[in-house]
Amino acid sequence: MTDLSRREVASLAIVLICCFAASLGMAFNIDGITDSFNLTNAAAGKIISLEMLSIAAGNLSFARLTERINSKKIFIFGASLIFCFNLLSVFATNSYALTLCRIPAGLALGAVAATCAGTIAKSNKPELNFGAINSAVGLMGVSMAFILPRALKTEITLGPSFQLTGVDGLYLVYGFCALIALIFVVATPGVTPSDKSTEIRKRGGSGIGWLALFAIGLMFFGHASIGLFIVRIGRELNINSENIGYVLMIGSSLGILLPLISGWLGTRVKAFFPILVMATFLVLATLTLSESTATWQYFLAVPIFATLPTAIMPIFLGCLSRLDSSGMQAASHVAFVLTGSSAAPFIGGILIDLGGFAFAGGFAAVAIGLGALLLMPMILAADKKRDQIMIDPSHFSLSEKR
Question: pLDDT tens for residues 161-216?
């Protein structure tokens, strides 16, 4: 176990959220891509799906390398690539060129996310540290919800045959964020390759841990299949992009506080009941959002819908870290989340084109509910191990020494 200082946790959080800026703005991205390139929901969703799949591939690849490569080298290399390809995305003149820019940016982001999660998973207090990371994601979400609707209004003519439009404004913002990440890399913990890395990789986590990762991926697939169209839903209700941004700011503001509460709660009580309650409310919020016919329904559902996944993650990752002390499974969680989510924009776009938002929302609610059900074996096993540790505290320390 590693004892991380507050400065190191804060630096990890800043590097992660700044590299992750484009992913946090996916709902605005899909709206901007649809309008700027005159694409259908399904076609725009396909670009987002490929980007998210590349993030998952990069994450899964580097989750196995967190014990082999110095973490700062991964952060510097990854943030540099993200910065370059975010800027190149600004100059993409068609959807194919944009896709070619987003795939390598996604691979680099996956590497950064895996390294960050693997470092946190091996810390002394993973629930609290993951809570801090997810709280930072909420803070970034507030910033993005304010900035991105204004970036979407970008209209700058650079020459007779080239003009910056809304989607270009988004990628300029993301490029600036990646530059900030590069500045803060210096303060991150420089985790070096361990002599015990081979032994750690052999442990590799339990079967129910991998099942839980599949389950969380299924939940996020359901969430993203309607969530990535949250801006489009608002526009169908004649809500302008600035007001949609304000609603998302409210959700992101809750996302600052709730992960911290969730992380603290994860160190105090068993995980089963909090996870069950949050999953239930997430299903209800999904149905309300997708079937909204009035602005008040949208304003009520969006903050709950947007916030609950970040509140679930600290407890989920704390349980996973308790069962797999190598940190490999926790480091892999982004891959599973985004593998599921990568198909969501494309499939969600098809469902919306076929049957509207309510049809896609019903599908999403079923996926979230099924994922929560499959999650429970791991949660119950982690709760059981928690009881064993409370009865015999030496159980945990001895297992770590082995």
Answer: 667 777 888 999 999 999 999 999 988 886 655 544 444 444 455 789 899 999 99
Token representation of residue 188? 């991150």
Q: Which amino acid, 352?
A: I
Give the model's pLDDT for residue 1.
Answer: 56
Which tokens belong to 68?
Answer: 């082999």
Q: How far apart are CA 43 and CA 352, in angstroms?
A: 12
Q: What secondary structure does DSSP assign to 323-389, as a single string?
A: H-TTSHHHHTHHHHHHHHHHHHHHHHHHHHHHHHHHHHHHHHHHHHHHHHHHHHHHHHHHHHHHHHH
3-class SS at 160?
coil
Render the burial of 320-358: b for 16+ CB within 10 Å, e for the rest: bbbbbbbbbbbbbbbbbbbbbbbbbbbbbbbbbeeeebb
Spatial separation of the C-alpha atoms in residues 176 and 32, rounded to whole Å: 18
* C-alpha 15 chain-centroid distance: 14
- Domain map of the chain by residue range? 6-186+198-396
Judging by beta carbons within 10 Å of its beta carbon (0-12, 13-18, 19+), is residue 300 exposed, middle or buried? middle
Q: Which tokens belong to 292? A: 């909204």
Enter the tokens of residue 88. Answer: 């190149």
Length of the chain: 402
What is the CATH topology of the domain spanning 6-186+198-396?
Growth Hormone; Chain: A; (1.20.1250)
The answer to whether the pTM exceeds 0.90 is no
Taking the alpha carbons of 107, 108, 110, 114 in that order, is the dihedral positive or negative? positive
